[in-house]
Structure to design on (229 residues):
């Protein structure tokens, strides 16, 4: 994973980490489809699976037009053959040079106000709009997978198909309370008298260990990409 030039500000490295992991989540969801599913849609007015996998086109526009990131020509964004495998590979190929470019930007660059459609916004604001839009495009595809009776990959937490030791979904009041839902090792640490802020950090690290390794390079694991180092 590239390190941000502005990482000393303690807030910009997470932009690189977030973009890498959000890209991983997209290609993991895409990988649950087969080529025969590309024409599937919920309604005559709904987008097809393939339409939603053309997401790199809007990403290219955001990064090139609004953030000023060097990008390939728009005609070169999509692969010549629109298969699930090719679309996943292309998504990753386009993401990798963006990470390197963004890592070289300083805090002044991120906070600069630039045109965004008919408004003016800071580049960091535009980046987060991009992340939200990516999640917006990914979400209907998880619904499509369920309706096609396919396994839904984990993105922000476990699904009915994918879980792991330490998974802690908030499904009720007890979990929403936070402390009551801590895993046993963390609960014991809390009982030992450590500050709650320290316990929360420990819980985050424990969850990191049980998550599958994700990356922007192909992995032997099905439907998964391994993290950039």
């Amino acid at each position: 994973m590239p390190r941000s030039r502005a990482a000393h500000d303690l807030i910009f490295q997470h932009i690189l980490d977030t973009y890498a992991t959000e890209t991983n989540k997209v290609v993991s969801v895409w990988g649950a489809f087969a080529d025969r599913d590309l024409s599937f849609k919920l309604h005559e007015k709904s987008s097809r699976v393939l339409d939603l996998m053309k997401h790199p086109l809007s990403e290219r526009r955001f990064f090139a037009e609004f953030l000023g990131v060097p990008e390939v020509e728009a005609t070169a964004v999509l692969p010549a053959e629109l298969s699930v495998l090719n679309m996943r590979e292309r998504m990753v190929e386009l993401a990798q040079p963006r990470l390197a470019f963004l890592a070289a930007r300083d805090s002044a660059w991120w906070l600069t106000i630039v045109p965004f459609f008919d408004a003016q916004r800071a580049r960091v604001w535009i980046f987060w709009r991009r992340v939200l839009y990516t999640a917006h495009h990914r979400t209907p595809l998880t619904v499509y997978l369920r309706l096609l009776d396919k396994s839904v990959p984990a993105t922000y937490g476990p699904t009915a198909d994918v879980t792991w030791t330490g998974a802690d979904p908030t499904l009720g009041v007890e979990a929403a309370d936070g402390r009551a839902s801590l895993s046993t090792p963390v609960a014991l640490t809390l009982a030992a008298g450590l500050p709650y802020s320290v316990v929360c950090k420990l819980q985050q690290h424990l969850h990191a260990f049980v998550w599958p390794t994700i990356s922007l390079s192909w992995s032997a694991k099905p439907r998964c990409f391994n993290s950039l180092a």
